[in-house]
Amino acid sequence: MHKLLQITEQTLWQIIGRVVLTAGAFVSLGLVTRNYDKLEVGAYTLAQTYLAMFFIIADLGFNAYVLKKLKRNSDEANRLLNVRLYWSIFLALFASILILILPLGDGLVKMAVILGAVTIIGSGVFTSVSLIFQKELKYQLSIIAQTSGSLVMVLSLIVLVYLKVQVPFLLICYSLGWIFNNWVSLKLVNKYYHFRLTSPDYKYFISLFKKVWPISVTLILNVVYFRFDAFILAAVRGLSDTAIYNLSYALFQTALFIPTFIMNSYYPIILKELNNKVLLFRQLRIAFFIMINLSLIGTLLTFVLSEQIVNLITGGGFDGSIISINILSLSFPAFFGTALLMWVYVSLEKYKSLLWIYSIGLSANVLLNFIFTPVYSYIATSWITVFSEYLILVMQIVVLLFEPKARTKQ
Questions:
Q1: What is the pLDDT confidence band of residue 405, given thresholds at 50, 70 and 90?
Q2: Other C-beta atoms within 10 Å of 404: how many?
Q3: In the prediction, which pLDDT does 403 show?
Q4: Which of 9, 15, 286, 302 is most deeply buried (CB count within 10 A of its CB)?
């Protein structure tokens, strides 16, 4: 009962924080959609999507592995922060150079990415500090930092929109938000852990990557599989259609925090109960049942409220986003289920199985998008997202059920 209360408390803290962050994201999205045309909105959202992909590359899934070692080596978290800091700086520079080469969007997209590249560093630092918040089950402190950063971002965005600056300069607001987030989070974490700046430890980075490379590659494939469709859409249908789809996806993914937060709170407890497989899988079956039911409620609410929410944010003119988000909501059960099962695979160290599953999912997603998106635009990307996520879920379940039996035969 105590464990359940812990999970519930920390999940509720994360949900409260997410509600605040979502409100900030909706306000910023509303400001942009109401004050700029669809081409500019498309450039704005595409630049954000591009940068967000590097957030995952900066992460590489190291937290889950290092969390296991914190009790044995108190310096492990500091080493992780420093290696991720230097890695994030490299990625920010790489992302800025790469966007100049890629035939992606126009000058607005390229300039927006360069001005917002600092967000990659901010995300990397915060991910490392969050390791301590997760270990101590103090997500309320993480929420304070995130909310502070979001508030700085929204206030600065209001000023720049009022001044009618070009869209690329709006990405500066996100950089300012991440900088303030990092400052607050480092102040709050001092009670539990003192981080300090050290020189780059390349050997440590390589040793970490060698241990968890399957999950690192899986996470990268996962984010590419999630958002690569936006880049295909921009290339074959233009920034206006991309704006419609990215708006619907931004609204759609706000519900995906629920399974993520539940598993963030549950993962440390999973690690403690790995030796009791019967109890572990019994609890996971209950969690799976709860998540599926929550996802069905989410789908129903989306169909009921999508039109009102889209029009409230944009002021009208984004009817295609209403259709798109309704289609995307049909994948909620699959997203909720895969979020749970992915952490089961991580806790059981079935990294290579995850890698194969998401590789197949990515391949199917990209192939279908190349075939159907040029003709059916964001309607195709929406349905392909639904299909791909159910394909991932089915493969996760099949491998989890039958892989142990295959080993037994051997």
A1: very low
A2: 10
A3: 65
A4: 302
